[in-house]
Amino acid sequence: MLHRRRFLTTASRSLALGGAALTLAGRAAWALPSYTVPLSQLQEMTATKFPRSVPVQGLFDLTLQAPRLRLLPEVNRIGATMAVDAAGAALRRSHAGTFDVEFALRYEASDRTLRAHQIKLGKLDFPTLKPAVNELLNAYGPVLAEQSLGEVTLHQLRPQDTAVFDGMGLQPGPITVTAKGLTVAFVNKQP
Fold it and tell me: What's the pTM?
């Protein structure tokens, strides 16, 4: 009888431990490992890429200052507002304005960077320019946005950031914009 109780106790403990292990394994199978980049780091890295000058058809140049980034988790994108200065012979004097865009992100494996892409112009506005000139600038806006921000690096993953994942046969995958920053999920490496 004592032997039977000991067997049942040991068996139930084994089942409980096995069940807990299966539960943890099941949760681990559903949860992708990830790496998070806070907004402050994105802002710092982006600031190093500015100011930027963009010529407009030989008429004038736009000089863009470092953007102020905002997270848009509801659409999985990042917004950027920046001060811009338009100057050149066609304008007679310098005009200050704002440039507003939003964009998605992609991972570039060759240098482990997170880059802006799928750039969408919100508005390019110069209060001191005539409405017709503002309209002209906004007509060129999408091209200007692509020239000025296309492929801007927002963050670079260091080898030590991904070493554990590399050893597990994982690589950066989907990038999700959250209220706190970017989350880069790691997925199985493709052959």
Answer: 0.74
